[in-house]
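Late entry, written up from scratch paper. The run itself happened at the end of the previous shift, but nothing got recorded in the book at the time, so transcribing now.
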Amino acid sequence: MKVIIYRVLAVWLAGCSLAACSSATPQREAVKQPALSEYPLHYYTQQLADSLFAQVPAQSTLARPAAEIAVASFLPVNSLSLAEADEVQKQLANQLSESMLTHARQRGFVVYDYRLRGQLLLQADHEQALSRQLADIGNLSDADTLLVGTYTVMEDGMLLNARLISIRNKQVLAAASGYVPHNVLWSRQEVGKRGDKLYRQRYSGEQR
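Output as recorded:
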């Protein structure tokens, strides 16, 4: 009889010990990796533009004149400079400004491109109307509002912040935030999969 009692007690203690271990070390939930984005960059900038431009009128009224906009490249929020950014970030920063310029004009705003050369440059195989060299650029535009933006690199993408700022008094006329997944700028040939995780792979085979 004593043997049976000892065995039952041992089993009960072992069960308690397992339960205690289970409660002390809970199972970690598997982190789901984001799937490849099904949408191009234009989709995400359109959402950002909808939120931003809804705050200002595209047509002048007696109470408030419409903004006449020039657009600048998006910049990393901490440094406010693309000097140390990699090529992917520079491409995204410039494409964001190009997309927002397009959205602004499509919504009826007056938009200026301050990169227009003073004279059209004729090359042997192409013509060049835009430039980033100050010596090539003509008179400054008549824009009274600047569309600027910043981005913050997150684990799976970039957090975007855009604002319309009055050039005359630096007043923020409108502001909006958005998000762009990293893989929007990745080609499917550059993306590999190991288990359930996505990673970017250079042509040389180096993984990011």
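The two ends are 66 Å apart (CA to CA).
(Scratch paper discarded after transcription.)
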